[in-house]
Amino acid sequence: MNENQQNLVKWGIGGVALLIAIIIIIATFPIVVIGAGKRGVVFSNASGIQNKILDEGVHFRMPFVESVHQVSVQVQKDEIQASAASKDLQTVAAKIVVNWHMDASRVNRIFQSVGDERAVVDRILIPNTNEVIKAASAKYTAEQLLTQRAALKLAVDKQLGERLRKYNIILDDISIVDLDFSAEFNRAIEAKAAAEQEALAQKNKLESIKYQAQQKIETAKAEAESIRIRGDALSQNPQIAELEAIRKWNGKLPQYQLGSTTPFINIGQ
Predict the structure, then answer these.
(1) Which residues contact 60 (CB under 8 A, 6 or more apart)?
(2) What pLDDT is attached to residue 269?
């Protein structure tokens, strides 16, 4: 064996020894620090998951006997894709954002029955959200799902919250980010919206025509009333007609004569 081979062997032995030493130190180190927003689940090689839960801070454990798994109790945010059908049998693809967290006083039971955060999402959150969305969507038509999204959210909030509590998971809030339908339904909605806009435009146009017609009627009424008032005034005082003629006369006598009579306007004595 040459010198290089001997050095490689030495380095290999040294690396293995260092790894063993680290494992021993970790296994025998009695102190564990629980980070912010987490809880410590204690597992005993002798009796399994313990009833005690470690809060944030420094704690002691029994070397070689106890191990501690840190679990987050902070609010988690997960986006879930759900497929459902509406009351009128339209396919609905929903995108739901779920905010949730583990019950800090029950993390040991959650870890024992389900697992860590990732396991909670895969085994509890996703399947239950899908089931709730399917049940809630089936109570609304596709058009109602679009126009009554707030009611749908309330229904999902309530039903999903009740389901998750059975697993010691607390629902903070859900958001319906998107509801998507088939291409045919989307085209139908667009056509309906266009028809409604056209109908509204025609209605506004008709109202405008009616308004203009009413304006003309009111104008005609005013003119008729003016003529009536003038007629009454002339019939009661003939001199007004002569006064009106004088106002309109341009000061020139007519260029024609009938016999020997000269036009004359009696303007009174």
Answers:
(1) 30, 31, 32
(2) 45
Q: What is the pLDDT of residue 241?
A: 59
pLDDT at 264: 47
> 86: which residues sit within 8 A by CB, 6+ positions away?
92, 137, 138, 140, 141, 142, 144, 145
Indicate if 143 and 112 belong to the same structural domain: yes
80 and 115 together in one domain: yes
Structure tokens at 207: 């109202």
CB atoms closer than 10 angstroms to residue 131? 15
Residue 23: give the domain boundaries.
11-72
Helix segments in the chain, DSSP class H:
3-28, 107-113, 117-120, 126-137, 142-147, 149-165, 183-236, 239-248
Phi, psi at residue 186, to the nearest 5°? Answer: -60, -40
